[in-house]
Amino acid sequence: MTALMKSVGVQALKLLSSAVNFRMNQCGETPIGCLRSFSTVMSPPSKAIVYEQHGSPDSVTRLVNLPPVEVRDNDVCVKMIAAPINPSDINRIEGVYPVRPPVPAIGGYEGVGEVYAVGSKVNALSPGDWVIPSPPSSGTWQSFVVKEESVWHKIDKSCPMEYAATITVNPLTALRMLEDFVSLASAGDSLVQNGATSIVGQCVIQLARLRGISTINIIRDRAGSDEARENLKALGADQVFSESQLNVKNVKSLLGELPEPALGFNCVGGNAASLVLKFLREGGTMVTYGGMSKKPITVSTTSFIFKDLELRGFWLQNWLSLGKVKECREMIDYLLGLARDGKLKYETELVPFDEFPVALDKALGKVGRQPKQVITF
User: Fold this and answer.
1) Three-state secondary structure call for residue 291
2) Which of 131, 147, 204, 259 is the most exposed place for a label (fewest CB within 10 A)?
3) Residue ranges of the Enoyl reductase (ER) domain (predicted)?
4) 249 burial class (0-12, 13-18, 19+ CB within 10 angstroms)?
5) Which of 51, 97, 109, 334 is labelled catalytic?
6) 317: Cβ–Cβ under 8 A, 6 or more apart, which residues?
């Protein structure tokens, strides 16, 4: 009996330690700060996707049950509705993303939820409100999230949940890149991009069209490229070329009546980046925001000397760290309004939380190209 009691005691301590670690991961407090009196408001127990070490997401993540946590005076307890699996989420789990939470950690970085309970000093939010973490915040792959009121931004509940869950990382990247680097005219200018079938690429096409800006879009040669071309044109793309179509001496001869672009976006690298550079007019700017091919960008000496091209980089995390919370939320409301009105569209696939491994396999590309995976709670 004594041995059994000791065993039970050890297991209890392990569970308590685990709860404290996860609470520390959420609120950044010391154990003493987290282990307050349990007479206050508590969250319901939560299910979460966690990882205790960095590595391949399909081997280091697991679904666990977490105990209730305290809802303090300035806290809001949110019942998550939906959260996506983004490439950056995968990179965080792998341990290769520049900014990542300490392990053990709960996955996920954006999403939408409904306010379940609020602390005694919370005035701006009420149970039933829809909220998103803004700026994004780690730990959205769990059924209940408790964080300070300042983390949450109330949104219009009329927006479809799949857009509310995914509006920050990809659409906001597209909007910021359109506005931060080159002053394009409201009409008559053009831009060129690779990775046009990505959600960022699709958003660039639609946001540019709303501004009267033409888009030249580059896609990879692969099965289904004809269908992808037609889908992009339906969103408002002016020109769509596969990489093989651009194996010509003078790519600008393919522009027709379109003006030479002053701005280019690169999320692939390698040859696809070189194709963007070939389209740019003298003094043009290429902005790199991703490197899906994992190949470097090679720029000819001629492009620098005789075309005076400018190469820039964009990282949404860096922009969000500049204290632009108010501006960020205003832009999110604008983008959500476009999505609600059908002026901003992209494909997602909703997957129940209990089927997370299936969604993760699709996000990892194990079963071919798939829509953005959005887990629902």
Assistant:
1) coil
2) 259
3) 55-375
4) exposed
5) 97
6) 98, 99
Residues 6+ apart with CB under 8 A from 117: 41, 43, 71, 76, 77, 127
Query: With contact defined as beta carbons under 8 Å apart, do 218 and 241 qualify?
Result: yes
Do residues 306 and 339 share a domain?
A: no
Check which CATH number belongs to the domain holding 91 and give it.
3.90.180.10
Per the structure block, which two tokens stand in for 257? 């009546």
130 membership: H or E segment, kind and range: strand 130-133
In Å, how far are 60, 143, 276 from 354, measured between CA atoms?
17, 11, 41
Give the range of the structural domain holding residue 271, as residue numbers without chain letter. 181-312
Q: How many CB atoms lie within 10 A of CB 71?
A: 21
Question: Alpha helix (H) ranges present in the chain?
Answer: 2-27, 31-34, 57-60, 87-94, 161-166, 170-180, 199-210, 225-235, 270-279, 301-305, 316-320, 325-340, 356-363
DSSP 136: -
Residue 284 lies in a domain: yes
Q: Is 97 annotated as catalytic?
A: yes
15 occurs within a structural domain: no
> Could you state, in chain order, the average pLDDT of each consecutive group of 10 residues for the chain (377 residues)?
34 39 44 44 97 97 97 98 97 95 97 97 97 95 98 96 97 96 85 97 98 96 90 97 92 92 97 96 96 90 89 93 88 97 97 97 93 97
Q: Which pTM value belongs to this model? A: 0.87
Residue whose entry in the numeric block shows the structure tokens 């059908």: 342
Q: Are 146 and 68 in contact (CB under 8 A)?
A: no
Under 8 Å CB-to-CB from 112, ≥6 apart: which residues? Answer: 80, 81, 82, 83, 130, 131, 132, 155, 161, 164, 165
Number of domains in the chain: 2
Coil/strand/helix, residue 133: strand
Evaluate whether 170 touches 200 at the Cβ level (below 8 Å).
yes
Is residue 67 classed exposed, middle or buried when 0-12, 13-18 and 19+ CB atoms within 10 A define those classes? middle
